[in-house]
Amino acid sequence: MLVFILGAFVATAYYLEVRVRDRALEVRVAAVSKLVEQKLDKDTNLMHAVLRTMMRNQVIEAAFAKLDRGALQREVGPLFETLRTDHRITHLYFNGPDLVNVLRLHSPGQFGDLINRDTTTKAREQGVAAHGLELGPLGTLTLRLVVPWHRDGALLGYLEIGEEIGSLVDEIHESLSIDLLVMVDKDRMLPQQWQHGQSLFKRQGNWDRFGTHALVAQTISHIPDALNETVLQGLHAGGSAVVADRDRVLHLAMLPLTDTSGQRIGSFVVMLDISVLQKTFQTTVLGTTLLSLIIGAGTLGLFYFALDRVERDYQRQHDLEHQLLRLGTEHQRILQIEKLSALGTMVGEIAHQLNNPLVGVVNLAQLAVREADDPVRTRELLREIRRAGADCHALIQSMLRFSKVSSFESKPTSMAEVMEETVLMFRQTESRQLPVETRLPKEAVVLTVDPILIRHALFNLLMNAAQATSDEGAIVIGLDFEPNPDDGAPGWLLSVTDHGKGIAPEILDKIFVPFFTTRSDGTGLGLPVVQHVALLHGGYVSAGNQSGGGTRFAIWLPQEPKLPRQNEPDSLNYVA
Ligand SMILES: Nc1ncnc2c1ncn2[C@@H]1O[C@H](COP(=O)(O)OP(=O)(O)O)[C@@H](O)[C@H]1O
Ligand SMILES: [Mg+2]
Fold it and tell me: pTM to 2 decimals?
């Protein structure tokens, strides 16, 4: 992704650089074209002013009228020198009315030839001033102005003034900060004449550098080696080119060079130095790429470390889950083993409980066989056998009752009614007629419970209380509002208090274990049943000794019925 973004960035930057560069060159080329025109106009005007001043001079006029070469040179010579040094005027001619040269100020030794270039012929034909760029036979590219000179309506001749292209390109070079090459088509000159012109005017032109063009003027000392004929062809076709030149990068374009008759005689090559732009572009791209790579690498590294940590955390969590799962399975197994061992204990207890009466039955039966002759003794033994059998029967019955606890049907039940019914039942069963006091709250309490189970549990508590009470101490059965001490849920405490012998502290944690009993005729199933019933109702059982002697057992029942917690009293269900 980063590489893609970087690629896109570099491509965009390059595209922008090319556009900026092309636009800059376009602007310069347009400026050059305009400046050349302006400069030609301005220089023509200047030259025109010079000529007009000269034409107003009586002495010069008289000398020209007499075609007096010596007088002309004397009069105009110093002026020409000033023009040459200060204004770069390179040519000044006096031509006769027939265009035959009278005097060349720049080359006084040469005269008498016919000058029939475009500007001169145009000036003669039209009778007015003519100007324009002209390529001389010696390879001189000059801006010329030819003005006809009349005196009193008669034509004296023609004045001609000119400046070479070199000064023009120098000025453009300075004002636009570009370099220029001026090239002329070789077809328009003869090499010998060109060479003659070069030596005559001490010019720096170059005939051989390019195949089709001769170099007339240039603003740089060194022509880039990369600028060859092929590049030139491309420029000629209207394109641009970028060439390297020593420590510079140049952007090139071409402008046509036309002479006064409108014919293309050569070209300007405009050269814009784009080294700074390229350098800026390269440093920007390089800097940004490097920075992006560093940031990218940093980010990737960071991600790598973060992901590594996440992965390690995940692995640790996975391991923990695995361990928990294993622990869970082990826990299940332990529970299973516990259940099995509880089952073993229970079977042992049952066997133990049944064994005593059965041993009695067997022994008594043996005795009865031996003493069969004595009917009185036999009858007595048989009675004993029946009692032992009845004990077994009672044990089996209580176990069956215990097993019935697992059926559970709750409904809104008046607690006062349940309590009164149980007390009634208890009175019928308990032979000693112990006083039972019932303490009910003022309001009617209706709870969603299974009345049969509650009655059963309450009955067990009453029986235990009675069994623990030796004297005439009263048993109190009460119902009090009490929130759950664990979560504060509203509920009711159904309690049975006696004034009996109390529970020894060392057995206090064993009394709810199935088959635990301290009574010779006990089954040890009473309190487990009570606890089971409490748990089925979402409550609990508490037991404790009273400070004044005796015990208090209480079943806490929630105000709002909860779903029966079938799983918790699981260990009590094994008989079912
Ligand atoms: N109200 C009580 N006062 C003193 N001890 C009690 C009382 N209730 C129960 N116990 C003790 O708890 C034991 C277990 O009681 P329980 O489960 O009902 O079996 P069981 O009545 O058959 O012995 C009793 O043997 C007795 O030692
Ligand atoms: Mg009991």
Answer: 0.51
